[in-house]
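Annotators were shown the component list below and the corresponding predicted structure, then asked to write short factual statements about the assembly.
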Amino acid sequence: MAEHHGAHHHDHEHDGSELSEAELRVRALESVLVEKEYVDRAALDGIVEFYEKKVGPRNGARVIAKAWSDRQFSERLRSDATTAIAEFGFTGRQSEHLVAVENTKDAHNLVVCTLCSCYPWAVLGLPPTWYKSAHYRSTAVLDPRGLLASFGVDIPEATRIHVWDSTAEVRYLVIPLRPAGTDGWSEEQLAQLVTRDSMIGTGLPLDPRDVPL
Amino acid sequence: MNGGHDVGGMMGFAPVLPASEGSPFHEEWEGRIFALSVATGALGEWNIDAGRYAREARSPLDYLSSSYFELWSKGLLDLVLSHGLATSEEIAQGRSLEQPKITKRGRLLASMVGSFLAGGTPYRRSILTEPLFRAGDQVQTKTYNPRGHTRLPRYARGKPGTVEIVHGVFVFPDANAHYESEQPHWCYSVAFRGTDLWGESADPNLRVNVDCWEPYLAPG
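Structure shown to annotators:
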């Protein structure tokens, strides 16, 4: 029976006993759903490839770099992020309704989804493992400052922390503070400083001295 | 439901620290179940809220001891069986034993994937009601414990807050997850003080915003 479960793109067959319960369940679902023509196997390959290769945090980095460089765009991003981000062609699933929240000297923003794993896919790609973990989801709303310290990000006690729990279909993107020492940098150069974590709020942009120009 | 998914404020989970990750999928089956969930969702038999509910409507022990994509596989299996796309016998044997049913929408073909993903599914609706609240209004979240799906976490129930953003009118998950039509309602970002959520010992400089549909709120 195991060979019927095997998705034929595998380059080797597993003995059933090596497979986890989850992997067996997924193989059975795929086999049955493909055979009954509910699902096109090539479409599955396309979906995986899209989220592995075509979207990711480089999209968001371009948005942030433009916001740092272009005051009018920054205003558009803060007033209607969905429309402003669509100017880049970044639209779609799990980014249908976007809100951008800006860090200031006095306030640091942090994004979480305590109930599942909501995340702005079109600008950041799919969420990383830690974002989906029970640890992050449980702690981000209760003790974000301690959580950030454990991630190596020290937010001074006087700095307010604003946590955004993504409980609806609105997805949040953090606009980090533009690092000092970047006057005259191009958008392309600035984008190199913008990390995925800085757009979630669990990190800060890179230090410009660490980036080769 | 007050399920294992509603973890905000719980303690004691093992830390998972940020790391640079290449693929969002660590094993091949994770990508497959993700793609299967997207592709079967396109058939229109269920909606995003029913999909979330299928993952969370289980014993908290099951939820919290399952890996992330394992939960997706359990949720999708439940949906596939309850909507009659396959029988448990078919899943057990890993092959088709019955004729497929007619689905609301057709199969997602490979050529449609790009436009399907870039199009997304908007959840904002146009209805001609005025919002009950405006930015700056004081509100109080309701205390309730529904057996079905809801998106107001337990930590934010029965709490005073301030409306910060009026997001617009959105599909109401509490109804939509149970196929009781979309029942769109106004949705707001409500700001809560850390001390109101967690008590006097909480960080005085903490504010937590939760997106709340109007039925979750009463005037404060």
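Statements collected:
1. Chain A touches chain B through 86 residues (CB under 8 Å).
2. Chain A has twelve helices and four strands.
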